[in-house]
Amino acid sequence: MTIREAARLLAGLDCIYLLTHQRPDGDTLGSAAGLCAGLRALGKTAFVLPNPDITPRYRPYAAPYLADSQAPPEGAVLVSVDVAAPTLLPPGYRPLAGEVTLSVDHHPTNPRFARNNLVMPGRAATGEIIFSLLRALGVPLSRDIALPLYLAVSTDTGCFRYTNTTAFTHRVAAALLATGIDCDALHTEMFESKSRARLKVEALLIDNMAFYQNGAVALGCLTAAELTALGAAEDDVDNISALSRQIEGVEIGAVLREVSASVCKLSVRTSTKWEANRLCALLGGGGHERAAGAKVPGGMETAKQAVLQAFKTYLGVDEL
Amino acid sequence: MTIREAARLLAGLDCIYLLTHQRPDGDTLGSAAGLCAGLRALGKTAFVLPNPDITPRYRPYAAPYLADSQAPPEGAVLVSVDVAAPTLLPPGYRPLAGEVTLSVDHHPTNPRFARNNLVMPGRAATGEIIFSLLRALGVPLSRDIALPLYLAVSTDTGCFRYTNTTAFTHRVAAALLATGIDCDALHTEMFESKSRARLKVEALLIDNMAFYQNGAVALGCLTAAELTALGAAEDDVDNISALSRQIEGVEIGAVLREVSASVCKLSVRTSTKWEANRLCALLGGGGHERAAGAKVPGGMETAKQAVLQAFKTYLGVDEL
Fold first, then answer.
1. ipTM for the complex shown
2. What is the CATH class of B196-315?
3. Interface contact A192-B165, CB threshold 8 A
4. Do B185 and B220 meet the contact criterion of CB atoms below 8 Å apart?
5. Burial track A133-169 (b if 16+ CB lie within 10 A, e otherwise)
């Protein structure tokens, strides 16, 4: 379905309830809030269905639009935003998957599960599609619409740094900023602020990072005991392997984290010279070319030996 | 002078040599390289005068345009880019300040020192002005022009995060990306890559950071001996105080660095609630509202006591 067709479909509806994906991020919540604000500006009844996993960081953007109940009222039409598959709806909403009238999404893997599907894989964020949709609906861009859409676009592109960023992304950002929104607090909260525990984990990782192959390979290890001692939650180790690849000269950066006495989690980031998924496949894992992972059996010492062996095999060297 | 007038001036010239500022950054070098590429596309002789302080990170962007000699040839017309004052030229070029035909700059403090001045303080980067200038000159945007201009605009806006970023900034970025330039390596080099020494300094700072006032005030200390032991150069501590302000809950973040046995350097970052320059004024320093500094006499122990006393005075509390 095209943007124009989706806009025509929405224009004919009166009561629209929006679904976001589980463990919601800035794109799903920002897209939902922006679309909801736009539909309300057209005089429609529109709400975002409450998502049980919304974190405090994102809550303020969705709060003005959240419905009181998880049950959409009689006659409401369901629209999902940034939901790549029915299984990615929060568990409580999965029974509704068959009743979704429109799915708006940018994930190429979206199986077109809804009755109507506006799926545009070339867009960096679903927020970019909502922007076009509201334009096609003739909704004037207000700050209430622009701020959540900026949240959607900026978070899904790493604030315009990821390779998914296009000229269109910047054109959307230009139109959003032209409304006069203030992005300063958003930038700090989303891209700069770190918990004390997170910083302690980073410091620990830097201190125990081991380098091989003249500094081209870096491996940092975090034991379960260390993480507990620092009071680090799951959030505090999220994406921590990115740090290993930031180090000058590192082409393969990896972090091995002890999840329990019997299993460790390996996370690998590579430069364009190496393929993270091929390295991780040697340990039964997988992922993308630049970012991949594997579950490695054993506690830290056992798992570390397996990882170093996989590095040797992948690099074709006898000694690291 | 307007963009149109500056374009007319440049259109009438044949041989143009460009001046950049001392300790050159991405904006001065990217602007110079982009302008030089554009002038060459018009068939003109154009060079960037060699700047003795270009660091390896920036060199590749300027390299294709650097003149062989620091002495511009007979008949060459001098144009300075992003040079806010004659005193900011590299020392060897200061005698030429009176002969600059055109100064293109975005610093509001620019004293209009050249014969003609295109100074636009509303622009986030001088690169944005060069973009408009080349458009007015009718130069088609090529990748050779777009990449250095993207360097200029992205570095001067913290990759679109600083508050100087405008809708125009994003419109320029959109036009630059539309040429098909690949910004991935640039993003990594400019915004992500860190030296091992830098990371060690960050880890040390995180480990010894002290918190006061329920975590709203953070002070990290780096002794000269510690920095020497880590092999940290001046570059490795550049802007390190930003880290203290990134910590969740911190409103006043400060780093005290021992420069020698008799003097320490304080660097303070504040949230919008507090004024860094007023705090630093209590120690004889100054700066901006959100970022300021002071030189504090004494080695670490003496200086630290003075800083804590200044904190107490500024906050109006007896105990921190």
1. 0.86
2. alpha beta
3. no
4. no
5. bbbbbebebeebbbbbbbbbbbbbbbbbbeeebbbbb
pLDDT by residue (tens digit) across A263-295? 999 999 998 889 999 999 999 998 888 888 999
User: Is residue B272 packed enough to be buried (19+ CB in 10 Å), middle (13-18) or exposed (0-12)?
Assistant: exposed
Query: With bands split at pLDDT 50, 70 and 90, how would you rate the model's confidence at B245?
Result: confident
Chain B CA closest to residue A162? B184
CA A310 – CA A267 distance, rounded (Å): 13
| Structure tokens given for A45 | 């009844």
A–B CB contacts, 8 A cutoff, strictly below: 99
pLDDT digits 0-9 by tens, B191-227? 988 999 999 999 999 999 999 999 999 999 999 999 9
Give per-residue pLDDT as tens, B217-241: 999 999 999 999 999 987 788 889 9
Distance CA B214, CA B27 (A): 40
- Among residues B45, B64, B63, which one has the least CA distance to residue B54? B63
Element (H, E) at A133: helix A126-136
Q: Whole-model pTM?
A: 0.87
Query: What pLDDT is stored for residue A238 in this prediction?
Result: 82
Q: Do domains A3-191 and A196-315 have the same CATH topology?
A: no
Residue B255, min C-alpha distance to chain A (Å): 16
Which comes out higher in pLDDT, residue A56 or A315? A315
Cβ-contact B70, B49 below 8 angstroms: yes
The pair phi, psi for residue A33, each rounded to 5°, is -65, -45
Contact A248 B170 (CB under 8 A): no
For residue B286, the one-letter residue type is G
Architecture per CATH, B3-191: Alpha-Beta Complex (3.90)
Query: Minimal Cα–Cα distance from B205 to chain A, Å?
Result: 9
| A23's tokens | 């463990």
Neighbours of A179 (CB within 10 A): 17
- Confidence at residue A26, expressed as pLDDT on a 0 to 100 scale: 96
Nearest CA in chain A to B163: A184
- Domain ranges within chain B, ordered by starting residue: 3-191, 196-315
Give the position of tokens 């990290």.
B220
DSSP bridge pairs for A286? A293
Q: In what order do the strands lie in the sheet with A15-19?
A: A45-48, A15-19, A77-81, A100-105, A116-119
Q: Rounded to a whole number, what is the distance in Å from the CA of B251 to chain A's nearest CA?
A: 11
Q: Which residues of B touch A178 (CB under 8 A)?
A: 167
User: Who contacts B75 (Cβ-Cβ below 8 Å, separation ≥6)?
Assistant: B15
